[in-house]
Amino acid sequence: MKLTVALVGNQNCGKTSLFNQLTGSQQHVGNFPGVTVERKSGFIKQSFIQPESSNEKNLTIEVVDLPGIYSLSPYTPEEIVTRDFLMKDKPDAILNILDSTNIERNLYLTLQLEELGIPMVLALNMMDEVVAAGNSIDVLKLSGNMQLAAVPISAVKGDGISELVQRLMDVAVNKKKPAKIDFCDIGPVHQAIHSMTHLIADHCERRGLPARYCATKLIEGDKIILEELGLNENEHEILSHITTEMERDAGTDNAAAIADMRYSYISKVTSDCVHRVGETIEQKRSTKIDALLTSKYFAIPIFLGIMSLIFYLTFGLVGKWLSDWFGMGLDWVTGIVDTALTLYDLSATAHSLIIDGLFAGIGSVLSFMPTILVLFFFLAMLEDTGYMARVAFVMDSALRKIGLSGKSFVPMLIGFGCSVPAVMSTRTLSSRRDKKMTIFIIPFMSCSAKLPVFSLFSVIFFPDHAALVMICLYVGGFVMAVLSALLLKNTAFKGKPVPFVLELPAYRMPSLKNMWLSTWEKAKDFLRKAFTIILGAALIIWFLQHFDIRLNLVTDASKSMLASLGSFIAPVFYPLGFSDWRLATALVAGLSAKEAVVSTLAVLCGASGAGLSSILQTILTPASAVSFLVFTLLYMPCIAAFAAIRREIGTKDAVAAMAFATGTAWVMACIVYHVAILF
Amino acid sequence: MKLSQLVPGKCGIIKRVEGEDSLRHHLLDMGLTPGTNILVRKIAPLGDPMELNLRGYELTLRKDDAEKIELETPANPYSCASCSAACCPYCKKDRGTK
After folding, report:
1. Which region among A301-305, A347-351, A582-586 has the lowest average model confidence (pLDDT)?
2. A501 vs B45: CB contact, 8 Å cut-off?
């Protein structure tokens, strides 16, 4: 027998920890159809399902981890996805996890879930923290009040999980629906909900929808439910009559009346079974930590310090060590294959395909892995400790001026390291508009792969001011990002910014297991989605580099298809002051990875070091060199970044983002060139 | 008095929540219902948003959105007299042993 269980809870309530405890590393990550909301699922470990004396044989339970939400209203994609899943996929049970240190607000969602009439169990997480603070929750009384099974657990420590699974199985297998769904005291709201339930009972039954839930939602003014029920005109009228009457009698409007009804019921329950002496140790500690981390003068310096440290570790110390290690391993394998192919006497073309195309392609995919692993490990740490929410809190005001929210800041910063993880980290942005806009401006943050290009050109053309030129480029990229955001805010992304209502969870020690699983998930995701496109691109570039337009294998790089392509598009760069085909070709090759701009130039010029620099000085003036640098800084990111962008916002928007970046690059380079030749 | 006018360290009681539908609904869902005690913990370093404490948790809200929240007008808005001890570590301190 196979059961499906929906894991539902607020944000920051330890849902991911519980999910990891239940399923171990056997997780499947995908998207909900049609939206970019992540859908994670996995099977509960058999060790939880079958302790020695179990009579349930061959029972498997799939857990679907639904997005963290505070309510079942129809306003955010996360809420809508959760509603749709619960109402249409009809899971066998709901596992509702609650943060016990914050039980009032967490029960608000519980009350709405109960109305759905699906078998349900409450997991009271972080009960250890409640107890440690001298507070207490009478679980039996709570369970009695809510008429639901409730199990105290600690998801991080793994306490209470077996009992939770046993309760869950009992409820799901025996289809024990919540016994109580009536949370309203006698009064206008109670009356309204009950008359509404009667009114729509037939419609609900026909469509298999929970009547009480629909009735409450209709009174709240839920347009989606209204549409789904297909009420006739007469019923519409009765509906608005019921609502108006309730509003009149309750002395408040519909939304406030229903919210108040739920919170009043919760207060009654908590006053009966929650004994609260004061804040938990973690909450008190958080206030103290925040006295420093979000203080007026130290917040921003500390944040920049933390980010610098992470950058240093990712792109310097650990990342470099891992990169070298990866590189050595790959070189070793390549060497063996190379020797084997030579011994086998494979044709030169096929040999080159395997070594220069396939292996080089795999190498370029894998070269991102150390960065992604290390960076996402640290980001998971920032997220799990609760610091990420503080960053959003501290930076929001600045980001808001350019039409974004504080949550966009970290992805933008990561862009200075590498666009690929930067784009992937926008997944934490809840608003699709903010996410798209952030992704559009990330490529302007100069990534570390552009550094070799910058340093080569600035040393050749501006030997006395090389450092200054490079700093100007970095700052210029950032300024362009800000200007683009302002432009986009007033044109393509005019929509109103999403309100910034964010919970600041208490600081907690991150769990190594959670951080590792989250990192590994990102790495796997990158490998799976990017491998095909990056490898394909590498093979195409190899093909273009090694064949001419009549498909003959070429030995002279200047006769290759890539060179023809470069010559073909070179005139486009004429207004920018550089029209040499080698520069155009290098820019095209740079799409595979930005470092390739330098290596391609070296190959095409047939020289490196001093030779390359003297050739470059003949084909570029200082003014056109600046223009070339500006174009390199701003034009579309590499294929790997494109793959990541496409994954996050879809093909159409990804192509638009590329066109936007390249167009901006052309215009800016043109302006810079024409200003520069005046001097 | 609006929530956005409350200074850090002081509490108020929500009287009414206004604003357009989805924001308003979201605020109500998050527990900002009429009658709720709310403490302004601090203002972010750049002057916005605010950090609030209500129902035992910390919430941030931009001042523009806090503008939509009307507070009860007690005789002395800074006295914290009507604040329940659990929500407000500041006024608990103010009130000493009480």
Report:
1. A347-351
2. no
- Dihedrals φ, ψ of A27, to 5°? -125, 150
User: pLDDT tens digits for A498-519?
Assistant: 778 889 999 999 889 889 988 8
DSSP string for A507-542: P-PPPHHHHHHHHHHHHHHHHHHHHHHHHHHHHHHH
Give the other-Cβ count within 10 Å of A531's Cβ: 15
Q: Which residue of B has its CA nearest to A292?
A: B45
Predicted local confidence at residue A598, as pLDDT: 84
Residue carrying the six token digits 């498997």: A60
Report CB contact under 8 Å: B62, A500: yes
Residue type at position A30: G
Q: For the whole model, what pTM was predicted?
A: 0.85
Does a cis peptide bond (omega within 30 degrees of 0) precede residue A67?
no
A111 forms bridges with which residues in the sheet? none
Res A321 pLDDT > 50: yes
DSSP per-residue string spanning A29-47: EEE-TTS--EEEEEEPPHH
Report the run of H or E that residue A130 belongs to, with start and end: helix A127-132
Pairing of strands A274-275, A136-137: antiparallel
Residue A30 has phi, psi (to 5 degrees) of -150, -165
Q: Which residues of A649-673 are buried (b: 16+ CB within 10 A; e: fewer)?
A: beeebbebbbebbbebbbebbbebb
How many CB atoms are located within 10 Å of the residue A102 CB? 24
For residue A326, give how far its alpha carbon lies from the nearest alpha carbon of chain B (Å): 42
> CA of B25: which chain A residue's CA is closest?
A255
Q: Give the burial class of A529: count Cβ atoms within 10 A of its Cβ; 0-12 exposed, 13-18 middle, 19 or more buried.
A: middle
Among chain B residues, the shortest Cα distance to A507 is held by: B58
What residues pair up with B43 in beta bridges, in sequence order?
A: B50
Helix axes A103-114, A254-273, angle to 10 degrees: 120
Using a CB-CB cut-off of 8 Å, the residues of chain A touching B95 are none
Which run of H or of E encompasses A64? Answer: strand A60-65
Percent of chain A with pLDDT over 90: 43
d(CA B44, CA B88): 19
CA separation (Å) from A16 to A13, A63, A246? 8, 12, 40
Q: Which of residues 66-85 of B touch A (CB under 8 A)?
A: none
Residue B4's pLDDT is: 92
Structural tokens at position A400: 């808001």
* A502, containing H or E segment: strand A502-504
Between residues A675 and A347, which one has the greater pLDDT?
A675
In the predicted structure, residue A53 carries a pLDDT above the cut 60: no
Look at residue A302 and tell me whether its pLDDT is greater than 60. yes
